[in-house]
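Action item from last week, closing it out:
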Amino acid sequence: MKYVVIIGDGMADWPVKELDGKTPLQKAYTPNMDRLAVEGILGKVRTIPEGMHPGSDIANLSILGYNPMEFYSGRAPLEAASIGVKLNKNDVAYRCNLVTLKFNKEKTRAIMEDYCCGHITTAEAKELIEDIDKNLGSHQFKFYPGVSYRHLMIWSKGSAELECVPPHDIIGKEVIDYLPVGKGEDVLRKMMMDSVDILESHNVNKNRIKEGKNPGNSIWLWGQGKKPDLPTFKQKYSIEGALVSAVDLTRGLGIYAGFKILKVPGITGYLDTNYRGKAEASLKALKKVDFVYIHVEAPDEAGHSGSYEDKIKAIEDFDTFVVGTVVEGIKDFKNYRILLMPDHPTPVELRTHTEEPVPFVIFDSGDKQNNEGAEFSEDILKRKNILNFEEGYKLMDYFIRGK
């Protein structure tokens, strides 16, 4: 049996007034996903345990069959694994965003204008983070460049006992109300504030402003945690797996799960990503492994930007080039199952994640259903006689074992 999981990150949404009360998923033209919905097993799943933050880290951990209440240790350690940063027992990893803050004239207050500084290029960001490390790094603090706006700070023998807010949750809000709180807050707050003087005078940002682009004029620290202790996916399910994603978070999760990480040119995590390349690499990997996890970030990024137009485009491209390619290519294998789902909603109205259940479909080549009139959208959540997983990590057991 071959298994393929296809995740449209943040694909689920709320009704949008400009779409006549439909969601982007309902409005988008998705013949491949709809076909799976007609012929597959339908259900809903809560990927975010009650009381936990609705992050992609927690959601994807759940989908892969790991109980977040037991195994979650923070977002940043997963990203550290992806970029090859090895954590010692007492190291605390922090996600370090490059963000755009909009200051008042006196520079006494600021709002979070852009959580990703206009999706700054990786090359530009690398220069900025290297300068941050040169000025703020020490034997205790080390900054590592990642992809686009997503980077890391490692605090040796540091504190993880802080409440830190993701920058994409506070777009348009005053940052003074959302700075780190807890043990070590003074250290992090000073570091974030000191970064402004370093970054605002940097040539990279001066050039971005001249070009009408948002500058990366501050760092924002969040998502902290220590190295997790996960059993591998093979230990749990006796299956070798592979994973493809443009996002360090998901790749890091795959590394801890023991997956082979597929390298695909041109994957960006945004609307211009190489959708088809992900699907084709996954089909090729299935010749050597029995499980592939395909993660596509673009719908989530569109949700964070608040653009229903971009989200519809991301969903339609996802359907055509990822789902369509997989559905056609996987026919080369005799027995297979496909799990299709979002990891969480990212409503364009809120521009951040929510924790409510999401729809899923499991297509089994040997057990086709006949769900007349079904389409893959939030409408699945309203249907009767569907599977319902209140504990999201149990969905993978059902997908693999059928029980």
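Closing note: The two ends are 15 Å apart (CA to CA).
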